[in-house]
Design brief:
single chain; alpha/beta; Rossmann fold; 4-stranded parallel β-sheet; 11 helices; about 15% strand; globular
Length: about 325
């Protein structure tokens, strides 16, 4: 009987491609090592603060805070949360995409309480449904704003303005990572809103990828165009602040295309993450070239890009 010689299985050639392959390799930055993914986010932010305390951390046009000032708000608010919220219970953040939102998020993580962003852009009914279903122990808000939300009496209300005006930086014991860090609710467009849990390691994995791919560094000026109630917003917020960059929170729905262009131009923004639909609107505006003149990197995602998007980028963005 004839026998057929068995062929050897083809060998696999596994090639490692660096995250910054053909990218901004000439930009000096501090690599985000794997071991940092195991550290608390608040501890990494404190490290960034000690490195450059006087540098502007966040600027929303109405309020700008240095790293030292932001840490003071974080530490003061973390002590208040710890005294009012049982361990493990979630805290809602009912704040706009502005300078105070990162302070609230970092304060929750510093004391080991998961936070739930409640986007002010959502309809009141949607926000109240999240409030009813999430089992919040407390909610952080700006007492000077009318949020039009029926908050149950059992939910403690923490006015972040009290921590903003604090003059002393209290000592805090930063909680170790573990358990949910942020719970992001879906829009509810296909049914009831669903809470998606993310732990600190998952967030820091995204931050590490963003840092090492973009060579994100303290010299960068990053525009936050995504809602902090989305995973993209969470990633971009922490990626900037854990690397010592300056974060410019921007709400396109509130200030419009012209307002976004003004921020990009006046703040000399160097990078941001953006969805294609918003990118097209910005790049086709009359003053687009001036607004994008200082960009070194643009990260596009969240939807399909088309060839016309690339053509617009080539027409408007700096050659580099």
């Amino acid at each position: 009987m004839a026998t057929q010689k068995k062929r050897d299985a083809p060998s696999r050639c596994e090639t490692y491609v660096a995250l910054d392959f053909r990218g901004p390799v000439e930009v000096a930055f501090e690599n985000f090592p794997d071991e940092w993914i195991e550290r608390p986010i608040a501890s990494l932010f404190q490290h960034a603060t000690l490195s450059r305390p006087e540098k502007i951390a966040v600027d929303d046009g109405a309020l700008r805070l240095s790293y030292a000032q932001l840490w003071r708000v974080v530490a003061h608010l973390a002590r208040r949360i710890e005294s009012r919220v049982p361990a493990g219970r979630p805290v809602g953040i009912l704040l706009p995409n502005g300078a105070l939102f990162p302070a609230a998020a970092l304060a929750c993580l510093a004391c080991g309480r998961p936070y739930i962003p409640i986007d002010l852009g959502y309809p009141a009914a949607h926000r109240e449904r999240i409030l009813a279903e999430s089992g919040l122990a407390a909610i952080i808000l700006d007492g000077s704003q009318d949020v039009s939300l029926n908050i149950p009496r059992t939910v403690a209300q923490l006015d972040i303005v009290e921590s903003l005006h604090a003059t002393v930086v209290p000592e805090i014991a930063i909680a170790p990572p573990g358990g949910p860090a942020v719970i992001l609710y879906t829009s509810g467009s296909t049914g009831s809103p669903k809470g998606i849990c993310n732990d600190q390691r998952a967030i820091l994995q995204r931050v590490a990828q963003a840092t090492n791919a973009q060579h994100l560094c303290a010299d960068d000026r990053s525009a936050l165009l995504s809602s902090p109630g989305t995973i993209a917003g969470v990633r971009e917020m922490f990626a900037a602040l854990l690397n010592g960059a300056t974060l410019y929170p921007v709400d396109p729905l509130r200030i419009g295309i012209g307002g976004v262009l003004d921020v990009l131009r006046d703040k000399r923004v160097t990078l941001c993450y953006i969805v294609p639909a918003l990118l097209r609107a910005l790049l086709t505006a009359p003053d687009a070239k001036q607004a994008f003149a200082n960009f070194r990197l643009l990260r596009i995602g969240g939807d399909n890009s088309i060839s016309g998007d690339l053509a617009l980028c080539r027409d408007v963005l700096p050659p580099s």
